[in-house]
Amino acid sequence: MKTSIAIQILPKRNNLTEVVEAVDEVIELIKSKGLRYEVGPFETTVEGEFNELMELIKDCHLIALQSSDAVSAYIKTSVVKEGHLLTIDEKITKHKQ
To answer: Which fold has domain 2-95?
Structure first.
């Protein structure tokens, strides 16, 4: 099933610098998967197949928990069983400056 997720990981850390470092680790994990992704100021959007993205959501939590005591995540999903799912590019290209 074609799937698109938007994920925002918020690790509990002592200061803002440490939060950014933990988020950077999560983004590096996402990059390593070879999927189409777009980093935004609040969340990262990723496209792929349903099962691989559900696994990615779990892995993002685990990476953030390696250096944090707690993690909150905000996740949005869009899934189609068949047919066309709007891509990241279709959603945002016309709005880029």
So the answer is: Alpha-Beta Plaits (3.30.70)
CA angle 7, 80, 3 (to 5 degrees): 30
CA pair distance 58, 41, nearest whole angstrom: 21
What is the pTM for the complete model shown?
Answer: 0.92
Quick one: pLDDT at residue 96? 84
Environment class of 33 (CB within 10 Å of its CB; exposed 0-12, middle 13-18, buried 19+): middle
Kindly state the DSSP code that residue 85 receives in the 8-state scheme.
-
Starting at the edge strand found earlier in the chain, the sheet holding 71-80 runs 36-39, 44-49, 2-11, 71-80
Residue 56 CB neighbours (<10 A) = 20
Tens of pLDDT, residues 6-51: 999 999 998 999 999 999 999 999 999 999 999 999 999 999 999 9
